[in-house]
């Protein structure tokens, strides 16, 4: 899957008006899409508007991402082809218009995101990156100065390649539009569906927590993830510090056991940080993290793709966010014990508590022990996304 920290560059810039929407909700054009998929090795995507609040014409869809063959950024056109972005795509107002009309498109082999905006088009801009190549500036709704900040929008993430289809809903950066994915192929799977009234319940749950309440933006526009809340001055940069101190104090005195595919490692806190022995290979010593490190699963908790340090760091990051790290055997796998402390990621807790399958991507390593809103199929035949009731 694509990295949530590396996939996007900086914030988007732009302006436009209400655009062509999700018309003919459901599968009106799905058969044509399947025929094209067979011919072009693509995967049919259909979209359903079940918001119960917004008309089809108010919803615009975009498929943005990266061509794995060239590394170029771009968008998927209505005919299902990937088109690299170009500076000439910016219109007279300085912005692109990559919105797709209709409720169906064929996804080529690529990694990317399917965005949905409501009532206004997303404000996307093609710029020149550090290597002199055209690149997209993506929406950053958590940044108050971003031109998409006031636009109701959200997205799913996916990788479609020779190994299959891998996709997820995400609240790693923010939560706004409730989205559900249905993936069919070797089996049929769904994820992302909220409980009845789930969106309102999520907003109410976050607003009810004094430390988290300021993350709610506008009158039901979105909720910022707490890491971005720190950046915006809306969340305490010291929130997790008491829990971090308690963890460090405990494992100065007693060992921590962390089991990964590389074996079981034993950790103790010393002068340089949390050092591990055992297993296959030696994980790097984990420095004492900050609240920001915990919420972004980065910094001291960054997880390199090395099969050793990476899995250990991911398990620790998940345990910090779920407030289970005072349990001396990790990863913790019983969700009944997650988010039980007063100092915990109540934002992620609200997402899980109001999802029908209890799964969500409330932080970057929410996939530890299988609790992320993520599905995959090695022989996919179709995928659908539903904008679920508000």
Describe the protein:
This protein is α+β, with helices and mostly antiparallel strands. It folds into 2 domains: 30-232 and 372-387, Thaumatin; 241-342, Beta-1,3-glucanase, C-terminal domain (Metal Transport, Frataxin, Chain A). The protein has 7 helices and 21 strands. The protein has helices spanning 30-40, 198-207, 226-231, 241-253, 291-296, 309-322, 346-353; strands at residues 43-49, 59-66, 73-76, 82-84, 104-107, 110-118, 125-128, 134-137, 152-161, 164-169, 174-175, 179-184, 188-191, 216-217, 222-224, 256-260, 263-269, 274-278, 329-330, 374-377, 382-387.
Tell me the fraction of residues in β-strands, as a range.
Answer: 25-35%
CATH class of the largest domain: Mainly Beta
* Separation, N- and C-terminal Cα atoms: 28 Å
Low-confidence stretches: 1-21, 23-39
Per CATH, the architecture of the largest domain is: Sandwich
Q: What is the radius of gyration?
A: 21 Å
How many beta strands in the DSSP annotation? Answer: 21
Number of helices: 7
* Overall outline: globular
Mean pLDDT: 91
Helix content: 10-25%
Run of helices and strands: HEEEEEEEEEEEEEHEEHHEEEHHEHEE
Largest sheet: 7 strands, antiparallel
Within the CATH hierarchy, at the fold level, what is the topology of the largest domain?
Answer: Thaumatin
